[in-house]
Every structure is written in structure tokens, then in C-alpha cells.
Amino acid sequence: MRCLACDAILTDYEATLRDATSGDYVNECIECIQGSTGNLALQERLDLKTVHDLGLGILDFDTD
Predict the structure, then answer these.
(1) What is the pTM of this model?
(2) Which residues pair with residue 43 across a beta bridge?
(3) Residue spans per domain, the chain
(4) CA–CA dist 64, 30 (Å, integer)
């Protein structure tokens, strides 16, 4: 499944996000949801959340 806004591949967590009011799937990635102007209340499945879904900038340190 892909993000409707940017066409990125959705994680399992992102693919299961629902609008809390309507119950409809959001079908957008975390980056697009955070960048939108709307204030969505989301139903989420925390058991599917990974480090990617936390929105943290993970640094990759070279060990050379």
C-alpha cells in the first residue's frame, strides 16, 4: 500500500491508521500526516509501531 500524498510505501502501522471520527483509513505516511494542516484524531495499532513510525531522526554513525 502506498501513501496517497507522496506515493511512499506505507509501513504496517501507517497502513492501519484510521480517522477516529469516521473510521476511514487515512492512507498517508507519518511524514505527510504531520505535514498536513488538518488536526486528525487517529486510531492506531501500537503493536505495529516501529522506530520508523516514531518520527525520530535516527543518526547513522560510521564506526570506521
Answers:
(1) 0.74
(2) 18
(3) 1-64
(4) 33
